[in-house]
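Our consortium's second objective concerns turning raw sequence data into structural hypotheses that experimental partners can test. To show how far this objective has progressed, the report includes one record in full. It was chosen at random from the queue rather than selected for favorable results. The single chain below, 180 residues long, was entered without modification.
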Amino acid sequence: MNIKPLLIAGLLISHFAIAEEAQVTNPVTENGVVKVEWQEPENYRDIKSSNELQSRFENRFFETMTKNINKKAEKTLKPNQKLVMQVSDVDLAGDMRPTFGATTGDLRVVKELYPPRITFTYQILEGEQVIMAGDEKLTDMGFMQRLNRVNERPFQAETTMIDNWLTRTIAPQLNQAASN
């Protein structure tokens, strides 16, 4: 048996896998009036999956968060405005704990001690013009009081934190700018 073709095939496959991984270093998701660049997610404080493939979990998180942010942003922004975000860190609500073989994956323990956090820069564009920009480091220390156990959606704590930021920070500034 000739091993040389197998080695070459293996090298080619690993090369393409590495090249594919390098291409998705900073995934970008877009939905409606929201565009989010997820900068170096491998360095995020906590975006760990408990029971699914990590890359699938991250993609699901990115898509779900962008869709959820868009729902609130469409109500907050004026026509012809867009929210562009560059997320540099995420710490999901809860903390991952090993189960030491009791289950196939780790377990996310959600307590007040482990609030959701997100760090990002943002721009509000009107057409092509930047009308507002800033840096944010959000933490929701009271997230446990707002979680609805009956109708809990994926990433509810993180979505609520961004929704509150849009309502309390962005909407008043947009209204003030419109009245000037």
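The partners drew two points from this record. Residues 25-179 form one domain. The chain has a mean pLDDT of 84. Both points have been shared with the crystallography group to help prioritize constructs.
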